[in-house]
Amino acid sequence: MVIETNHPQETFQLGVDLGKAALPGQVYTLTGDLGVGKTVFTQGLAQGLEIKEPVNSPTFTIVQVYEEGRLPFYHFDVYRIGDIEEMDEVGYEDYILGDGVCLIEWANLIEEILPEKRTEIRIEKDLEKGFDYRKITIEEVK
Ligand code: ADP
Ligand code: MG
Question: What span, in angstroms and rounded, lies between the C-alpha atoms of 3 and 18?
Answer without folding.
Answer: 13
